[in-house]
Structure prediction request, 212 residues.
Amino acid sequence: MKRFRTFAMVGAMSVAGLGLIGVGAHAVFTQNTVSSQQVTAGTMNVVLSSTAPGVGGNNTPTLTFENFGPTGSSFTTGDQLVTITNDSNISVNEIVSTPGDTYDSSGGPTSANSRLAAEVYLCEVSSGEVIYNGLLADAGAQAINGTLTAAPGPGNTDNYIVNVYAGTETTACGSVVTVGAPAVLGLSTAPSLNNDAQGGVINPTMTVSYTG
Prediction:
């Protein structure tokens, strides 16, 4: 009987040992691989320039033409050429051109400033086409489509012409009022300023927006 019990114990230990060996046999090698890539966001830097006399802010995003006037009832500021340069390290898309006007309107709609703002006209030309030719007060945002490549490189410049006027004057738009039509240099057909605009002061602006 003692010999039997001893044999049984040895057998149990042998089975347990076999179980431990079985667990170890299921172990595997492991390894990770990694791919990576650095991403850097570009920087937009679109600037304006003009060869007009007295201009300020050349090669910055804000260009300022010298003061104009006093004017008569019929006048033109001249076809002022503005060059857009993409100095960014990414390409940019021109999306919209928005004319505007700032002036002191505290005197109400009948003040000289308000009347001048309501009576002047705007001619805007880009790439040889009329973008707008009509009352400045009625000018809204105009969709444009142009891609300026990253600098340095070809295709990183564009330009537009802007002219504020009243009366029969020579402008880059002439009498063309259809948006997208070829611009034809010639005489405008706008009326002259009325007496109520005398002494008025306004500050027309042109804003071009970009995405990149």
Notes: The chain is about 15% helix and 30% strand.
